[in-house]
Design a protein that fits this description.
- With about 140 residues, this protein is α/β, with parallel strands linked by helices.
- The chain has 2 domains: about 70 residues, 2,3-Dihydroxybiphenyl 1,2-Dioxygenase, domain 1; about 60 residues, 2,3-Dihydroxybiphenyl 1,2-Dioxygenase, domain 1 (Roll), CATH 3.10.180.10.
- Helix content is about 15%, strand content about 40%.
- Strands 1-4-3-2 form a 4-stranded mixed beta sheet, with helices on one face. The protein has a 4-stranded mixed beta sheet with strand order 5-8-7-6, with no helix packed on it.
- Strand 7 and strand 8 form a beta hairpin.
- It is globular and about 45 Å long.
- About 15% of the residues are buried.
């Protein structure tokens, strides 16, 4: 029987990212537009929650009963902590247009621009989810 884990490695693998949201239904609609699908709905204590699958990963959304504003991760150069989610797309302009068609107005934090990382060139853009979480979209430029 083939094991996912080698005996000499730490027996751990990535499971999910958890995002707290002010409105779980608005967040679900947004992440569905990105290509995620709800796989489980549940409650966590007194709040609504769900797991979503997509882009080769799992995501958990949890509704915050009394949301409060937090530091703006994208605009504050001194912010420390989780910064953004990043997804690679095949055609960035088409993906952005499709997303606008699905969700309506989109908060664009950084318009598409070229960026070199190592020996690869990318076209990158940053958008925000309904709660302001930065999301990077990257396209490899051949």
């Amino acid at each position: 029987m083939h094991s996912l884990w080698r005996e000499t490695e730490i027996k751990m693998r990535y499971h999910h990212t958890s995002i707290k949201t002010a409105d779980i239904f608005q967040a679900i609609a947004f992440y569905e537009a990105l290509g995620f699908e709800v796989s489980e709905r549940f409650t966590a204590g007194i709040t609504l929650a769900c797991w979503m699958r997509g882009a080769g990963t799992n995501m958990e959304l949890m509704q915050v009963p009394e949301p409060q504003n937090i530091a703006e991760a994208f605009g504050d150069e001194h912010y420390v902590g989780y910064y953004h989610l990043s997804f690679q797309v095949e055609d960035l302009p088409s993906f952005l247009q499709d997303l606008v068609n699905k969700v309506g107005k989109l908060k664009l934090l950084l318009p598409p621009r070229e960026q070199t990382i190592g020996d690869r060139r990318y076209q990158v853009a940053f958008i925000a989810d309904p709660d302001g979480l930065p999301i990077e979209l990257m396209q490899v430029i051949e």
